[in-house]
Amino acid sequence: MSPGKWLPLWLSWMGALVTVSQQAPRLLMVTPSVVPIGAEVGVVLQVEGAPSGLSGTVYFQNENDASVKCSTEVQFKLKPDSFLEKVTLKVTHDHFVQCGLSTQRRDRYIQLVAHSSNLPSSNGIQTLNLRWSARQGYLFIQTDKPIYTPGEMVNFQIFALDHKLRPTFEPVIITVQNPWGLQVRKDQRALCGDGCCDKGSTDNPSHL
Fold first, then answer.
1. For residue 9, what is the DSSP state?
2. What whole-number distance in Å separates Cα of residue 142 and Cα of residue 168?
């Protein structure tokens, strides 16, 4: 076959390739690499190669057991004029137990799942593996002295931050134990108006 006859065939093959590639939308999912249990997680969705947009649902699931979802399903609809959308998911403590994440000991992974009939996979599903953490935030405790003797007053200050190191308004439960690990005092304190600290004091019983 002469080179001149190959040119129309090559052009038609390239045209078919472009058409197939345009029919397969590409979904990009952006989210924090660690999913904190009990806290809201933002997920940014972006689609390419979908002139008519893309719609579906996103949720979390246990990669080892997809029968029970680890969060509620949230719908998304990426419009043709704006191929970007942010949704919010949350793995509650009930979901955490029901979907089997609480039984994981070593490989603590959770799957972010996007489902749409227009995705190129056979089941219309795209997944992303992420780590999960049961830690919702951080507590920083400051005392006026490093060592106390029995009967002294203990003055303290607590800073409570969420997983993004922002002040949180969650109440703080304070417990005091003796050297043998027995609890001798328990108290629940509300945070200050700015949500970042709680100042207080407690007796240091002489029988500790």
1. H
2. 17
**pTM recorded for the entire structure:** 0.64
Three-state DSSP string of 105-134: CCCCEEEEEEECCCCCCCCCEEEEEEEEEC
Q: Where in 8-151 does DSSP place strands (E)?
A: 26-30, 34-36, 40-48, 54-62, 65-69, 74-78, 84-90, 109-115, 125-133, 137-143
pLDDT in tens, 64-115: 888 889 999 999 999 876 678 999 999 999 999 999 998 887 778 999 999 9
The enclosing H or E element of 3 equals helix 3-22
Which tens digits make up the pLDDT trace of 136-171?
Answer: 777 788 888 888 887 788 888 888 877 777 787 777
> In CATH, which of 3.50.40.10, 2.60.40.1930, 3.40.50.720, 3.40.50.300 is domain 26-133?
2.60.40.1930
- Residue 28 CA to residue 46 CA, distance in Å, equals 5
Give which of 78, 164, 63, 148 is closest to 116, Cα–Cα: 78
